[in-house]
């Protein structure tokens, strides 16, 4: 399993020291030997330790698209089906992984646990949208889609 970490300063967007995020993900090195990444913005910092399962070379995290940035641990079981649906809706993908599907799905369907993504995967993530961050430390259970 990958490792994710983050700092969020609600209210006053004070700077996040990248060294603090680096220390947090360094402590999780055993969870992700295939790479790491850090992203900071005023009031928020996200970190990631990667264990590559899908798209071994092409899905570094934290991953950004426009005003959305995600650090994610998990697997979306039906990501290929969702990717096809998102492409039909106009999404443009740079990778072949499920992380980007989650990122575009968040934009298209929102963070609701009843969105098309959450019911068919095991997910823990933190998503930053511009100046607001929503940590979603949720875990879903593989079930039939609720769409």
What does this protein structure show overall?
- The chain is an alpha+beta fold and 147 residues long.
- The chain has a single domain (3-136), classed as Glutamine Phosphoribosylpyrophosphate, subunit 1, domain 1, CATH 3.60.20.10.
- The chain is 21% helix and 30% strand.
- It is built from three helices and seven strands, in the order βαββββααββ.
- The protein has helices at residues 18-26, 79-88, 98-109; strands spanning 3-8, 36-41, 44-49, 63-65, 68-76, 121-129, 132-136.
- The strands form two sheets. A four-stranded antiparallel sheet has the order 4-5-6-7, covered by helices on one side. A three-stranded antiparallel sheet has the order 1-3-2, with helices on one face.
- β4 and β5 (68-76) form a beta hairpin.
- α2 (79-88) crosses α3.
- The radius of gyration is 15 Å and the shape is globular.
- Mean pLDDT is 79; it is low at 135-147.
Rg measurement, Å: 15 Å
The residue ranges in which pLDDT falls below 50 over 5 or more consecutive positions are 135-147
Give the count of structural domains.
Answer: 1
Q: What is the succession of H and E elements?
A: EHEEEEHHEE
| Strand order in the sheet with the most strands | 4-5-6-7
The rough form would be described as globular
Looking at CATH, the homologous superfamily is: Aminohydrolase, N-terminal nucleophile (Ntn) domain
Secondary-structure arrangement, i.e. CATH architecture: 4-Layer Sandwich
List descriptors.
single chain; 147 residues; alpha+beta; Glutamine Phosphoribosylpyrophosphate, subunit 1, domain 1; four-stranded antiparallel sheet; three-stranded antiparallel sheet; 3 helices; globular; disordered C terminus
